[in-house]
Structure formats: C-alpha cells, structure tokens
Amino acid sequence: MIRVLIAEDMHMIRSALVALLSLEDDMEVVAEIERGDEVLDAALRVRPDVAVLDIDMPGLDGLSAAEQLSARLPGCRTLVLTGLSQPGNLLRALKVHVKGFIVKDAPAQTLTDGIRRIAAGERVIDPELVAAALETGSSPLTARETEVLRAAASGNRVAQIATQLSLSQATVRNYLSNAISKVGGRNRIDAIRISRDAGWL
Amino acid sequence: MSGLAELWRSDRVLRLAPAGAAACSALLPVAQVLLAFSYMDNDARTGLWSLAATGAYLPLHLRHVWYAAHARRPPAGVWTFAVMAAVILGATPLAGNMWPRSYAALVVSALLVLPAPWSYLVYVTVAAAAAPIGYALGLPWTSAPWLLFSVLAGSAALLLLVWLPAALTRLRAARELLAQQAVAQERRRLDDDLRRSLGRALESIAARGEQAGRALESVAVHGEQAGCAPKSAPAHGEQAGCAPKSAPAHGEQAGCGKVGGAVPEGLPDELAALADDSRRTLADARQRVRGYRRPSLRAELETAATLLAAAGIETRLELPRGGVPDAIAPQSRAALRATVTRLLRTGAVPSCTITVTSTDGRPRLELRTGEATETIEIPA
C-alpha cells in the first residue's frame, strides 16, 4: 500500500484528488494539507511514501516544501503538480530532488501511474515540461540579481531591499537594472512578470 | 509600399555614402599633386616628389576613411597611420612649400584611427605646425594663415563626409536591434495571449468534459445499484422493476434514478473523446506557440546540461571553437529533447558528455553516457 500525502490549497481539487486516489486499491491518502508551510509537520507525523504537492500554495510554495521534505524526510518522495506556464521551475525541482513533475492538465491515469512509479524509485517528468524548459532556457540572472528581483517582487522599495540584503541603494539599483535588461523587460514590473512566467523567480 | 521604397532608398544611400567619402578624400590630394606641378616656383622634381608621396600615403588614408565610414576601426590602424605620417612628414622638405596642405589628410586619419586624447593632440599639433613649416619652406608670410585655414577647413569637410555615413551605419544597426526587440516582444505577447485565451479555454473544456463524463458514469452506477438501468443502457427499461420497454422516460418511473435512467447510449464515451480532443488541441496550440520561439541550439544545449546536472548527472558540454549552428531541424530538436527526457527520467546515468562535432562540414551531436553513445545529425 502506497501512503500518499496530498497538499493542494484549492478545496475542490484536493477533494477530487483524494477521491481519485481512494479508488486505487494500492494507495491510501494519509493526509490532506491546504498550506505549504504545514506540509513538513504533517509529513513528519504520518510518514507518507509519496507527497503530492501543488506548486502554488499559501505559506510556502510546493518546491520549497519539497526541499524541506528532501532535507528532513528523505524517504518521502515528492511529486509536484505544475502548470506549463513556468518552465524554469523544472530546474529548481530537480535541484530539490523532486521525483515527479507532472502538468496539472494531464489525464488522471498519469497521476496514479506517476505515484506508483515514484514509489518504485523511478523519476517521472512530463516530456512537455522538458521541452518547455529547454525552450525557455536557463535563467539569465545571477543569484544576486534573482535575490534582488525577488525582494522587489515582494513590494519592497529600493531602500528596504538595500537594508535587507546589506547592499547600498546604488548597488540594488544596478542589480535591478541588469535584471531588467537581461530578461528583456520594459521596467521592473515587466521584468518580475517575465521572470515569474519563466519560473526564474 | 512607400515604406519599402523609402527603406530601399535609405539602404542605397548607406551603400554609396562610404564610396562618396572615399572619393572626396582622394580628390584633395590629387588636386594637391596637380597644383605641385603647376606652381610657377616649383620645378618638375617637386611635382614628382609630391606625386610619389601621395601615391604612397593615399591608399592608407583611403583605407582609414573606408573603415571609418563603415563605423569600424581599421585593423592595424595605428601602424598604417604611422607609415602614412612618416611618408607625409618625410616628403615635407622635398615636395614644395604647399605640401603642408596634405596635413589635412594626416589629421583626418589621426582622428579616425588614434584613440582619444592622442588623436586630438596630433590634430592640434599637426594643424598648428602647417603654417610655420610652410613659411620655413619659403611660403610668403601672408599665405601662411591661408595654409592653416585650408588644413582646418579641408579636414573638417572630410571628417564630416566620413562621420555622416558612419552615423548612418550606426543608426541602421540600432534600427535592426530595435526591430529584433520588437519581434521578440511581439512573440512574447502572442505567447501570453494564446496562453491566456486559447489555453485556458481549452483547459476548461477538457476539465468540464471529464467532469461531465464522471458525473454521468456515477449516475449510471447509482441507477444500476438501485436495480435500474445499467451503464450500457440500450435496455434499461427491460430490467426488472423498471419502466417497460415502450416507456420513453423509463428512468423516471418505478423509482429509478431520474438522470441515471436517462443516460443516452455512448454519451460517456463521447464526452471522453471530447476531453481527449480538447487535450490534443491544447497540445497543438502549445506547439504552435513554441513555433514562435526559436531558441538557439547553443542555449538549448546549455539548458540541457544544466537540467541534467541538476538531476545529479555529471554533465560536460563540448562545443567546437568555430561555433554551433544556430538553427536545427525540428526532428533533430525532438530527438535531443527525447534523449534529455529519457536521461532525466532514468537518473541512473552517473555522467554524460554532450559533444558537437563536424564531419565533412555536417555538424552532429553526440551524447555519451558511459558505454552508450547516441548520435543526432543536425541538418540546419
């Protein structure tokens, strides 16, 4: 019996996933979570074999939750449900040892098969996601530029970002300007949008 | 059409402008040689020296002008400028007292070839020296200011003629860059629009189709459990306890499920087919969107290497010094993606080397994973 934890913030989809997996003879849903920051605690409590995580959740995104799981509960394999709109997330997912990366609009059979294969130790990655990631390319931003742009995406002003990251305001402006130019944005907002769409933030 | 004609005219001007600048730059030295033969005070030897020196420096000067008019610095420009300066200055005592007029070409070349501030220094020094040198060579003191004026005015006119086509070239390059950026922006907009409109609409169709299929299936199952019509319902009414065959709405009678009994034959299959069709259309739409983007092979290989490395496969990318072809055929691209997907899925490969080689001018891609080597031809 494969013990599955499901983390999805949308109630209807979560219920549908639970109902779907409950129909499988070899699977048991042991936990349903609606926030990303609750995943680790729940997983430590119920010790699932596979954690099915939505990529966008309140509190903590699916990939960050997967990173925590990989560090604290290495025996639990993670499968992340994602959209095709952020192909850059595949790279981040591989870095945090996500074993499965499936698009949300895949047929239901893909999910159940994926859980079985992940539980058996295989890696499941949608070919469409690989194609999209190869087309989008790696992030052109350096780690520092990503950090500064992420801070700007949270609504912080230059002075606040400078304080947070222990940089001068001029340096923050330089990083932002470089990031805007590298991703081909018209301004800061556009650069944040492009980077988010590509999954670079 | 008028836009295209305008573009063609501006391109023609751009092609002719450097030739015009070179022709004008040749005109003054040629006139200088003719004058060297025609001045009353000069003998034939002065004219011949002037002719020989001009023949030696003029090609170098025209080379500087030609490159500068194309907004480029001439290769080994400092050395050719040094030779030119040696010829002009060396001929000064031999080619007559009007020879310092040729300093106009020297200062123009200095400004085109030498980096600032050395170019300005040479310009000011040489231009200022023209009049005293002319005077020392026997030019009347009243003519010396005119010599200075002719050097300054001649060099200014030539520089204007050179800088104008150079500015046009830079403008054209900037225009091309802007056009490329506009195209990239437009592709991104199309991508976003398709994703927002078509993508969402089709996703919604697929989800609704699936949902309806499941609902109908479950209703049919309930009907069956209640001793009513089974899922494959041609004979619902024939079942015991249900409506007779002749009844048009058999499910509504005899306590059977209201909807369960009314499931038309084949509807769940039809809805499933609808969901499949929608999914296929969505994949087609995505493929079309991908068609707008043509990532370079190099970028794709670098991303592949990054992805494989992130998956724990030690990956080395070996690219030829001569560069990688920009575009590859869709089949080769698909083969590369399939291989990368397979490697990412298996994850059991410890290392991978991606090499681009060229045999008989035909580039090919090799992916070596331990013992196995996969070769992909890259027809452009």
What does this structure look like?
The complex is a heterodimer of chains A (201) and B (380). With 201 residues, chain A is α/β, with parallel strands linked by helices. Helices cover 52% and strands 15% of the residues of chain A. Chain A has helices spanning 11-22, 39-46, 62-72, 89-95, 108-119, 127-136, 143-153, 158-165, 169-183, 188-198; strands spanning 2-7, 27-33, 50-54, 77-82, 100-103, 124-125. Chain A has a six-stranded parallel beta sheet, sandwiched between helices. In chain A, 45% of the residues are buried. Chain B is of the alpha+beta class. Chain B has nine helices and four strands. A four-stranded mixed beta sheet of chain B has the order 1-2-3-4, with helices on one face. In chain B, α6 (144-225) runs antiparallel to α7 (267-292). The two termini of chain B are 32 Å apart. At the A-B interface, α4, β6 and α6 of A face α6, α7, α8 and α9 of B.
Compact summary:
The complex is a heterodimer of chains A (201) and B (380). Chain A has 201 residues and is of the alpha/beta class.
